[in-house]
Amino acid sequence: MRILKGLGVAALISFWTTAALGQAPPTTRPAETDQPKPTTLPAADSVAAIVNGEPVMESDIDKWFMPRMRMQGVNDEMMQQLRPQFRPRALKEVINHRLLIKEAERAGIKITKEDLVKAVEKDLDKFLEVQGFTREEYEQKLLERTKKSLQEHMEGRMADPAFQARFLHAKLIEKKYPDKLKVTEKDVREHYEENLERQYSKPAQVRASHILFGKAGMTEEEKAAAKKEAVAALPEVKRPGADFAALAMKYSSCPSKKKGGDLDFFPRHNKMTEPFAKVAFELKVGQISDIVESQFGYHIIKVTDRTEAVITPYEEVKDQILKQLTYSRPQDLIKQYAEELRAEAKIEYPPGKEPKTAAPPARSPVKPAPQRATPTTQPAPKK
Questions:
Q1: Per-residue pLDDT tens digits of the chain, which is 383 residues long
Q2: How many domains does the chain have?
Q3: Domain check: are 222 and 77 in the same one?
Q4: Which is it for strands 297-307 and 288-294: parallel, antiparallel or unpaired?
């Protein structure tokens, strides 16, 4: 099901196989283009909410939800199972769109087929730039997955009410907040500084190998035996000229023994269990530790390399940040304006359909591949 590198299903939904989960749902006023007939699950329709006196039907939610799932190859049976997870988010977006579309009508904003052609081309160019695909590469992936050409896909995109709504919302925001849409040098600099540590810095790292004696969840008797084995092996490991990798393959109980105990590079925090990371960062390159106890057993650690912290200079990323903010600013303003309209609107729910305080996040219909973790790469449990 996954065709875009670096993207899961939620991200796949958010761009070129459908509209984003957090973006506009259906029921927008049609543009001057042919509209596909809506498809709905075979279920009785009912009112999901009443917005300023106008009903939002359960079928309106399905019109938002189902086409995107079908594009993922999800059948009706699975859609029935997934619908409760997606419904709260979908309903919120349907309501937001109803409110925004009314404001667009009051402002006299309309969209034409020519508008949509330009918008879909612009969206595609941005998408290809982010993903690193050429048009030819992406069309080949689409053909393999959907049996449709890129042109057919773009025509379907333009006919998608959610895409039309997103474009209409953008035009509404351009008219309402023309000054706020402009991204300034100050905005770029503030974003860089606020995200410096998380996004534009690479922390110092060490590369280490280890020999592990024992395993997690040992009894006291097993721990004593493992420690005794580690103590006995330590002089051999520390002997001048000893082959640490060969001894790791001989003694270690960690899967890393196949690589001579090598654990590759890791930062000081949030990767290795705390006792292990603390000692590793105190060692010099080439130095071997004494016995280190963790919840996974007893380690002998050798640091083999080290890199210092690196900060990406502002000048190198300012253009990238500018593009990012220029793209995200309209979406942020749309969400902000929708929340303002919701606060002023009269929204009623039938008994039993009131929204929960916090709706559960939408989950991907594709089960992720299981991650295999070695003992030392699991963070220590918090006490």
A1: 332 333 233 333 333 433 222 333 333 333 433 444 444 444 568 999 999 999 999 998 888 777 777 766 778 888 888 888 888 988 998 899 889 989 988 888 888 888 889 888 988 888 888 788 898 998 898 888 878 888 888 888 888 777 788 788 888 988 888 888 889 999 999 999 999 988 899 899 999 999 999 999 999 999 999 999 999 999 999 999 999 999 999 999 999 999 999 999 999 998 999 999 999 999 999 999 999 999 999 999 999 999 999 999 999 999 999 988 988 888 889 999 999 999 999 999 999 888 876 444 443 323 333 333 333 333 333 33
A2: 2
A3: no
A4: antiparallel
Can you give the length of the chain in residues?
383
Q: Is the pTM of this model over 0.90?
A: no
60 & 81 share domain:
yes
Domain of 235?
Answer: 201-310
Whether 38 and 84 map to the same domain: the answer is: yes
Say how far apart CA 349 and CA 127 lie, in whole Å.
38
d(CA 228, CA 213): 9
Same domain, 190 and 287: no
Q: Is residue 355 part of a domain?
A: no
Within the chain, residue ranges assigned H as helices are 9-14, 58-71, 76-106, 113-131, 135-146, 150-159, 161-176, 185-194, 196-199, 220-238, 244-251, 274-282, 314-344
